[in-house]
Amino acid sequence: MGKLLSEIFPEILQYAVTIITISIALVKMNWLIFAGIVVTFPLVIFTSDMIAKKINDLARKRRGKYDELADIALDNIEGIEVAKAYAIEETLGLRVSSKAKEILKNEYSRNRYQALANGIVLLMKWVPSVGCSLIALFLVLKNTITIGEFMSFLVLFGKISTSLSELPFRIIDAREMLISVKRIEELLCAPKEVSGDYKGSELKNVENIIELKNVSFSYASGNTKCFENRILKDINVSIKQGEKVAIVGASGAGKSTLLKLLCGFEEVDEGDYYLCGQVFSKWDINEARRLISYVPQDSFLFPETILENLAYGAKNIDIEKVENACKKAGIYQKVCELPDGFNTEVGERGANLSGGERQRLSIARAIYKNSPIILLDEPTSALDEQTEKIISKTISENHENTVIIIAHRLSTIKNVDRIYCMDKGEIVEVGNHEELIRKKWNICCIIW
């Protein structure tokens, strides 16, 4: 972008000004000479423009293929253990090699067209030069212009021909750079999250802290919503403050999507979502999320220390509170055994820790935040039985926070106040554990 503004655009402006001023001088000298330039040079510019469009298409493909290569390389690195386990390193290597060959082929085509453009423009630059010089010589012989005017024409023509010849090249460079600029603009101009202005500094004394009324949702396909394939259909949920609620269902039933909806990561298509008695769309999005702690299915840790991950964003870290959160998440003893304790670097995406340790730290982070609402998406899927009991005990003994948990393990949700059973985006059954287990042929029995 810097080169585009500091070099390319000024040169284009300089060439344009030179062409305009010299054209005026040539018209005053003799209109016939200027007519020769007008007739011949557009052919050069038109030819250059046609080649430039092809080069721009190749440049656009090049950017896309480089992105694809980066994605493939990243997937190969992150999945190296799976690749080794299944002995597919060679297959993954072929993916990289294949994409690299596509890039090389595209680069070859682009360089070929670039060389062709240079050759054609340089060749065609002589056509106007020879043609206009012959016209000027003819006018001298006819005594229409003087020798002095002829010499002036040669000097002016040298100036304007250079500008007319270089201008297409600079336009080609500018177009290619604008492709990169447009890609950046697409990111910068991505739609912002919808946010209202309601702060809700204090929790209202409302009957339901979370309430969904006839909520439906579908993911977008491209830039359009696919309403025919709804992920959630007419969802009705009411959760009081301090309640422990579980959501169960087969894979793909819409459980994780429902939690994302509660966090405001997605917007409802139909129906209403109320948070603390207020329609969620009217909430200031950041204020609403301060009321929610979210533990996703795939635990994510920043490449910082354990302490920084647990209290990320906190201005003043309460060490005692951190330790208490770790004890409740069953990770405190493990952290204490590490050489650097809470100052241990977790690595990229928590690579220095096991899956269960990452999951427990994510739970500890949610406990440390101490939000009124805690959303847990499969929080014990990577935990052993003993640690799972610690987490389950922590959830059942937490009488202050509202906890919504997705789980497949019966032991994790056995003691919750209410269980919502989902199937194909719909809530098909509601009740506590005992009520649901007494029913025959219900979906919960199939899941458990």
TrEMBL record:
<dbReference type="Pfam" id="PF00005">
    <property type="entry name" value="ABC_tran"/>
</dbReference>
<dbReference type="Pfam" id="PF00664">
    <property type="entry name" value="ABC_membrane"/>
</dbReference>
<dbReference type="InterPro" id="IPR003439">
    <property type="entry name" value="ABC_transporter-like_ATP-bd"/>
</dbReference>
<dbReference type="InterPro" id="IPR039421">
    <property type="entry name" value="Type_1_exporter"/>
</dbReference>
<dbReference type="InterPro" id="IPR036640">
    <property type="entry name" value="ABC1_TM_sf"/>
</dbReference>
<protein>
    <recommendedName>
        <fullName>ABC transporter domain-containing protein</fullName>
    </recommendedName>
</protein>
<dbReference type="InterPro" id="IPR003593">
    <property type="entry name" value="AAA+_ATPase"/>
</dbReference>
<dbReference type="InterPro" id="IPR027417">
    <property type="entry name" value="P-loop_NTPase"/>
</dbReference>
<dbReference type="GO" id="GO:0034040">
    <property type="term" value="F:ATPase-coupled lipid transmembrane transporter activity"/>
</dbReference>
<keyword id="KW-0067">ATP-binding</keyword>
<dbReference type="GO" id="GO:0016887">
    <property type="term" value="F:ATP hydrolysis activity"/>
</dbReference>
<feature type="domain" description="ABC transporter">
    <location>
        <begin position="210"/>
        <end position="446"/>
    </location>
</feature>
<keyword id="KW-1133">Transmembrane helix</keyword>
<keyword id="KW-0812">Transmembrane</keyword>
<dbReference type="InterPro" id="IPR011527">
    <property type="entry name" value="ABC1_TM_dom"/>
</dbReference>
<dbReference type="InterPro" id="IPR017871">
    <property type="entry name" value="ABC_transporter-like_CS"/>
</dbReference>
<keyword id="KW-0813">Transport</keyword>
<keyword id="KW-0547">Nucleotide-binding</keyword>
<feature type="domain" description="ABC transmembrane type-1">
    <location>
        <begin position="1"/>
        <end position="176"/>
    </location>
</feature>
<dbReference type="GO" id="GO:0140359">
    <property type="term" value="F:ABC-type transporter activity"/>
</dbReference>
<dbReference type="GO" id="GO:0005524">
    <property type="term" value="F:ATP binding"/>
</dbReference>
<keyword id="KW-1003">Cell membrane</keyword>
<keyword id="KW-0472">Membrane</keyword>
<feature type="transmembrane region" description="Helical">
    <location>
        <begin position="115"/>
        <end position="141"/>
    </location>
</feature>
<feature type="transmembrane region" description="Helical">
    <location>
        <begin position="12"/>
        <end position="27"/>
    </location>
</feature>
<dbReference type="GO" id="GO:0005886">
    <property type="term" value="C:plasma membrane"/>
</dbReference>
